[in-house]
Amino acid sequence: MLRGHPVVVNFWASWCVPCKDEFPLLLSQYRAHHDADGLDIVGVLWKDSPAPARDFMATYAATWPTLTDADGSAMKTYQAVAPPQTYFINRTGVIVSRQIGELTAEDLERQLAAILR
Prior knowledge:
By secondary structure, the chain is α/β, with parallel strands linked by helices. Helix content is 43%, strand content 21%. It has a five-stranded mixed β-sheet with strand order 3-2-1-4-5, with helices on one face.
């Protein structure tokens, strides 16, 4: 399903203030690049419950999948240290870069440029 697509994997939580601040940026870029460039986003909940996360996503009308990581296996696999943490994966499945901490508009545009080619 994601093979051949540029993908952003975003570790986040509904209680995380920087996550809330960067969410509109992710949503804006998703809407700009999903249909045109095939961009996909996958959210991974960081020590959060699904109900508040669903409410949070509904507030923004975000439609990308968000996965729970109850056993912490995704955190271990990606070596995520704290939310927000974001990985940028190119069309061939290679992690091109990672952002630890909140994304700014400039960070996001720069990192997306590397995977949207």
